[in-house]
Design a protein that fits this description.
With about 280 residues, the protein is an alpha/beta fold. The chain has a single domain, classed as Alpha-Beta Barrel (TIM Barrel). The chain has 9 helices and 12 strands. Strands 1-2-3-4-7-8-9-12 form an 8-stranded parallel β-barrel. Strand 1, helix 1 and strand 2 form a beta-alpha-beta unit. The model has no long low-confidence stretch (mean pLDDT about 90).
C-alpha cells in the first residue's frame, strides 16, 4: 500500500478529477480537519468513501512538561472514531511549553528521565484513545543534554510505553548525514516488529555537512535505496506514505514518486515471496 498526504492544496482538483492520482490510502493531520465542516469536509468525506485514513498529528507534544490536553484528546478521539482512522501517529518531540505553541517539532533530550516522562504520557494517551499510538522518529539538528544514544532512547521509549513505530526513512537519512552515523546500522537496531508503517519524503541539502528536512522536495536516490534496504530488513509489507507538505508539484510528478515507491515495494515483496517458496 502506497498512500499520499492529503492536502487542501490539491483537494479540490483531486475531487473533480479523481483519476489524476492513484494512491492506496490518504493521511491527514487531524488538527487541520477535525473542526472543519462545510465544503472542505465534503471533499474529505468523498475521499474517505474510497480510501482508508491514516492520521499524523502535529500538536500532541508528548515531550513537553505540560499536562495532556484532555479536551483536545476528546475531540481527537471523536474524529478518529468518526473517520474510522486506521492509525494515529505523532512525533517523538515537543511542540509547546506552558501551553504556548512553538510551531516547530523540537527534539527531546536523550535521557532516562525523558524516557520515563514520555512513556508515561504515551500510556495515558493510549488508554484514553483506546488504540495504540504510533510514534515517529523525528529529524533534529542538535542533541540536547544527551545521556544516551538516539537509538537507545527510541528503543527505550518503544519498550517502556509499548507503542508502535512510524519509521520515517528520510528522517533517518537526514539524521545519519547530519550526525555522522550509518543509517542502515541504525535501522537494523530498531525492533522491526514495532514498525506500523513508513514515511517517505524529500529534503534540502544546504551545505556540505547539513541537510534540512523540508518535505518540500522530491525524494533523492540514496533515500530510495535506504527505503529498499528497510523493506528487505523488515521482511514483511507495511503501508508506505509519500509526504509532501509544501511546494506541491503537479499531479503527474506526485504520481511518478508514488509509482517509484510502488515499484520498489513490489520488487522487494516479489523477492521475499520467491525466497519463501
Amino acid at each position: 500500500m502506497i498512500g499520499i498526504g492529503y492536502r487542501k492544496d490539491f483537494a479540490e482538483e483531486w475531487y473533480h478529477q479523481p483519476e489524476l492520482l492513484n494512491a492506496d490510502f490518504i493521511e491527514v493531520a487531524p488538527e487541520n480537519w477535525m473542526n472543519v465542516g462545510g465544503y472542505w469536509k465534503k471533499l474529505l468525506d468523498e475521499k474517505l468513501r474510497y480510501y482508508p485514513l491514516f492520521t499524523h498529528g502535529l500538536s500532541l507534544s508528548i515531550g513537553s512538561p505540560d499536562e495532556l490536553d484532555v479536551e483536545f484528546l476528546k475531540k481527537l478521539k471523536h474524529f478518529l472514531n468518526q473517520t474510522q482512522a486506521k492509525f494515529y501517529s505523532e512525533h517523538l518531540s515537543f511542540a509547546k511549553c506552558d501551553n504556548a505553541h512553538l510551531y516547530d517539532l523540537l527534539p527531546i533530550p536523550f535521557t532516562e528521565d525523558a524516557v520515563k516522562h514520555v512513556s508515561q504520557k504515551i500510556k495515558q494517551i493510549q488508554d484514553f484513545l483506546e488504540r495504540p499510538l504510533v510514534i515517529e522518529i523525528v529529524s533534529y539538528y542538535s542533541p540536547l543534554a544527551a545521556e544516551m544514544k538516539e537509538i537507545e532512547f527510541i528503543n527505550a521509549v518503544l519498550s517502556e510505553s509499548n507503542c508502535l513505530l512510524l519509521l520515517d526513512v528520510n528522517n533517518v537519512y537526514v539524521n545519519s548525514f547530519n550526525h555522522r552515523y550509518d543509517a542502515k546500522e541504525f535501522i537494523q537496531q530498531l525492533p522491526k516488529e514495532k514498525v506500523a508503517y513508513i514515511h517517505m519524503a524529500g529534503h534540502l541539502q544546504i551545505d556540505d555537512d547539513l541537510i534540512i528536512d523540508t518535505h518540500g522536495e522530491p525524494i533523492i536516490d540514496p533515500v530510495y535505496e535506504l527505503f529498499e534496504f528497510t523493506l528487505n530488513w523488515l521482511q514483511r509489507p507495511v503501508p508506505v506514505l509519500l509526504e509532501r507538505d509544501f511546494n506541491i508539484p503537479e499531479f503527474q510528478d506526485l504520481q511518478k514518486e508514488i509509482n517509484q515507491l510502488k515499484y520498489i515495494f513490489n520488487k522487494v515483496l516479489q523477492k521475499q515471496k520467491e525466497y519463501v517458496a
